[in-house]
Amino acid sequence: MKQVKIQIPSLVENIRVVESFIDNSKDTFHIEDDIYGNIMVAVTEAVNNAIRHGNKFDKDRNVYLSLYVDKDRVKFEVEDEGEGFDYTDLLDPTAPENLENPGGRGIFLIRHLADEVEFTKDGRNVQLTFMLSPAETDESSETDTVSTENAA
Predict the structure, then answer these.
(1) Which of 23, 76, 87, 145 is the most buried (most CB within 10 A)?
(2) pTM for the complete prediction?
(3) Does the record carry Transmembrane helix as a key word (predicted)?
């Protein structure tokens, strides 16, 4: 299994770093275009939620993004340093009474774009799994860690 990790301060402008991370991962691990769009939207939304709702824009708190690549799947893990939230009690943004609400669609989107979504640590950690065809990655093992503390 291949693994890459980055850490970013909770600044909205660091979404650019996450987008670059996903682009580089697509090229490095040969992720197919058909799931690349889903990954880009779901992972940037999860990081955005971690920055906004989890860490409440506190630049002294970090968001941790990890990527794990296996022969048949890629998993992105996003973790913040916030208080967490009740991910089991969310409004349905497609319900008629919620259609006019300006927010509340992020987790709905994430759940529909990723093949598997799992929350842990009281909602401070979310793991998004995307299935690959077996030929998309090779099976060599690598670990890289990159810190972007001064990214913005």
Answers:
(1) 76
(2) 0.85
(3) no
Reported in sequence order, the residue ranges of the chain that DSSP labels E, i.e. its strands, are 2-9, 62-69, 73-79, 116-120, 125-131, 143-147
Residue 10 lies in a domain: yes
Pairwise CA distance, residues 28 & 150, whole Å: 24
Q: Could you tell me which residues come within 8 angstroms of residue 147 by beta carbon, excluding any fewer than 6 positions away?
A: 6, 7
User: pLDDT, tens digit, for every residue of 33-49?
Assistant: 999 999 999 999 999 99
Neighbours of 62 (CB within 10 A): 22
* 120: in domain: yes
What is the CATH number for 62? 3.30.565.10
Asked if residue 152 is part of any domain, the answer here is: no
**DSSP code for 64:** E
Q: Choose among 75, 73, 87, 76: nearest CA to 121.
A: 87
Residue 52 falls inside a structural domain: yes
| β 2-9/143-147 pair status | parallel
